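Blackboard transcription, Thursday session:
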Amino acid sequence: MEKNGLLKRQLSKQGMRQVFTVTCGLIALCIAFGIINPLFFSQRNISNLLRQIAPIILIGIAQSFVLITGNIDLSIGSVVGVSTMMSATLMTKGMNPWLAAFFTLLVSLLFGLVNGYLVAGFKLPPFIATLGTMTIGRGIAQIVNNNYNTGAINTIEKTAEAVDRFRNFFYYGKFLGIYNGVWIALAVFIVFNFILNRTKSGRYLYALGSNPEAARLSGVNVLKTTTIAYLVSAFCSYLVGITQCCSAGMGAMDAGNSYEMYGVAASVMGGVSTLGGTGKLIGTVVGACIWSVLQNGLQFANAPVAIRNIVIGIIIIVAVLLDIIVRNRKPKLADSKKQ
Amino acid sequence: MKKLLVVLLVLCLATVAFATGAKEDSGTKTWNVSLITMDSMDQHWVSCFEGAKDAAKELGVTVTFDSPDTKDDNKQIEKINNAVAAGKDGILLAANAQDAPVAALKEAQAAGVKIMYVDSPANFDTLRLFATDNREGGKKIGERLLQELKAQSVTSGKIGIIGVNKATESCNTREYGFRDAFEGQGYTLLETQYCDGDATRAKEIADNYIAQGCVAVYGSNEGSTVGAGNAAKEALAAGIKVIACGSDASDTNKQLIKDGALLCIMGQNPYQMGYKGVYAMVDLLNGKDLGGYQYVDTGVNVIELSNVAQF
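(Written on the board underneath:)
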């Protein structure tokens, strides 16, 4: 009994309650899809599915960091596009892929820097500031290769082998039987989860999101903290862009279109509040899993695409609604902890 | 803060530099033709514009490429309206959907702008259509795939289909042609999944199909075929038997044929669409009598390993 109470307290203290609820939902979904089509649980599909989840986790982490500070980043999808197009264009020009990835990283991080300064330095509403950088980013993605998608990135003899190794590193290769993309997402999760939960910067991010004024008065550097959040977002988006370039073997100008919203979906399903100050990255990971399991499972169920869209929309709403209902039904527990 | 201002200023200057660099010289008064395709990304449309540009050079007229950035009915309608507002004399249109642009086209015609179709027509009468017979093209790919499956003695099984989106008629027509070829052949053609032309999403869809045990995957446009090819390449390397095929002879797809990942693709002649389209448009603008409506088939090639070098 004592242990049970402790668990409950622990869950609510860490904002983990919704994580627990949606994890149950995720398991239920998986079981349902497995019953509809047993191949859902085939070894091939599991590794396949994990690889599909990986970029959504990265996008989710990107958006969660910014949401926790009480802001939003609409430029995520465009940074994915810039990253894909820029790295692919440089590679088709014969540049070593790692060097191309390095230059692309610098440009991608510039987006985070500009977003941070516009929001915290110039006090632009985050929705407007990142709407602007989103549009600029898409334009840059279109202009780097003169308004065309790139050709295949591995056709230049001098770098073909390096490009293939690069593609394996980010997408096609496996380590211990699991695709590299999954390991990359896991590593990013561990690092950023540590930063968020165990460092001063992490606490500042939460503080800023729960009460910006109080945070400022107690000495939190708002500009620096906000910029960190946007830099993390830009970095994760950059990684997804590189992965897309590796997966397709070419650069597409509309890569990453509306990914910022997938990021919001993964975050809120996992319990990150769009109002800032609450949420756990582990929740975002579960949210990303739900998103990808739906995409994958509904195809296995041979569902028409319209049905898929409707079901996904309903599940996003239900996931958040469920949390609100649960929260309202147990006011005592929440109150006794809060006040 | 000062540093940031400098950065912003540089960005602004760069934008201005880009903008002035992008402006084209209009020169003396000639016919101005606007080419509006479904999007400005696929190499298919790039080739179409190449053909149009070459014809324009020969005829001494101006052709501008006014396509929307992505396949989107509303964006395409805006491009039509903009072309009319900009005083273009003719529009060569590859309609994204049959009905969506009709109202805009009526207005364009009322404003005196001549209209012809390349690649895909809308439900609005014009004098010429320069296009691939998509149904026939899709069917040819289906028949080639069927032949290969039988050669590998695969006489039944599931086949996955990747489309662009529900509104893109030309690609959907190809898919119907592809399905025609398998009528009564004992294979199960699965529900079409849509990738919005995104090669990464298409790869995931193809992975899912292959994990379901599909014997073949078909893509109805460039992006979906790139995805199908990349998925098949990976599966084949892992020892899973699957055949991928699709549409559009882009560099990436041709490379995938050379890699042995794609069995065949439906190659069109977008260059001819643009080239012949501009010639016909200029004839019409010069007041030549073109007679009634005419459909000009620009032809289809089944491109595979044996002949890929020619394309």
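Lecturer's comment: The first strand of chain A starts at residue 174 and ends at 175.
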